[in-house]
Amino acid sequence: MSPSAIHPLPFSQWGLGLERPLVIAGPCSAESREQVLETALGIKQRTSQVQVFRAGVWKPRTRPGGFEGIGGPALAWLKEVKERTGLLTITEVATPAHVEACLKAGVDMLWIGARTTPNPFSVQAIADALRGTDIPVFVKNPVNPDLPLWVGALERLFDAGLKRVAAIHRGFHWFERTPYRNSPMWEIPVRLKATFPQLEMIGDPSHIAGNPGLLAPVAQQALDLNYSGLMIETHRLPSEARSDARQQIRPDTLAELLGSLEWRRASAEPALRDELQEHRDLIDRLDEEILQKLGARMEISERIGLFKQAHNIAILQPERWRQIMKAAHAFGKEQGLSANFIQALMDAIHDESIRRQTEVWEQERQAAGVQVSHGNGADPSGNKPDLA
Ligand code: PEP
Ligand code: MN
Description:
Layout: E1 22-26, H1 33-46, E2 50-54, H2 75-85, E3 88-93, H3 96-105, E4 109-112, H4 120-130, E5 137-140, H5 147-159, E6 165-169, H6 187-195, E7 200-203, H7 205-209, H8 215-224, E8 229-233, H9 251-260, H10 270-310, H11 318-334, H12 339-367
Parallel strand pairs: 1-2, 1-8, 2-3, 3-4, 4-5, 5-6, 6-7, 7-8
Helix pairs in contact: 1-2, 1-9, 3-4, 4-5, 10-12, 11-12
Residues 28, 56, 60, 113-115, 140, 170, 207 line the site of phosphoenolpyruvate.
């Protein structure tokens, strides 16, 4: 099934009375009946913005020996939370047995964790266990910054017939130190939204930030990017939490945080639309001009390619490219463009330029009847050939 043929339902059509923005809060782990109930009641008393209560029942720990969750018996506590507070409940599943236990216990929604999403065997087993049910499932991004694995996990659920499916952005493990526990790498969830425009996505600032100090800016950035909601780890007494103690906040802090955020509209009201449209028209025209110019640039690249071929000069000219980059960075800076952006844009232009030059060389060779078994031949997959 191609991504464009997939139509996950918006929260409003999940039949659960969910409203955007959807806020999910609760402890990292369900630790005891008292901890679960006190946390849920504390949340319920202090804010009306939370619609769903979370708690991990089976905890995937990186190394053995830590608290691995209470398991099945904790599901009864979630049921009690629902009865006492009216909050819907959600927990993490990693195996068909977890799915079965949750369905039996009446948990309202499930999430697939960041350590499970990247494993196609596990996700397929979960999808098979879910086939024929219509329980809502959230899919966290994989721990590693690998968009296709995230897309693949979602596709396995869609293929199993699930329509109440959403994504959770919880950040990515990165080998270099960053201010975050898990680097947000916002461009990855943005690309996921481009793949599945209708997919609801919520942010998990707790696992991105890793500490309460960064929660607000990360949550705000998610809302500014039009996320459909947030999942925030909340514990009656964070310092005593048996997992993720450093990033959890108390229910009163949660209420303060939610009150301090600016909640964006998903789209403009009719009165604002005309003004927005004027800006959008301008952008559309500029985008057209940019693409036209790029098309012209690539034609010249091809001409240069033919010239190089005729004079037996190699395609890749590192010194020339170094000069181009230097000039682009200087000019880009004058235009107020960031160095990262200039680098990415010029790299893309360079890749395409090399691909086009390689292609014309190959066409010329074929026209001349020369057979080349491998090497600089244009790769029909569009991959850049190895020019080293
Ligand atoms: C969690 O939500 O507590 C959890 C284990 O998250 P993740 O899978 O994102 O690490
Ligand atoms: Mn956690």
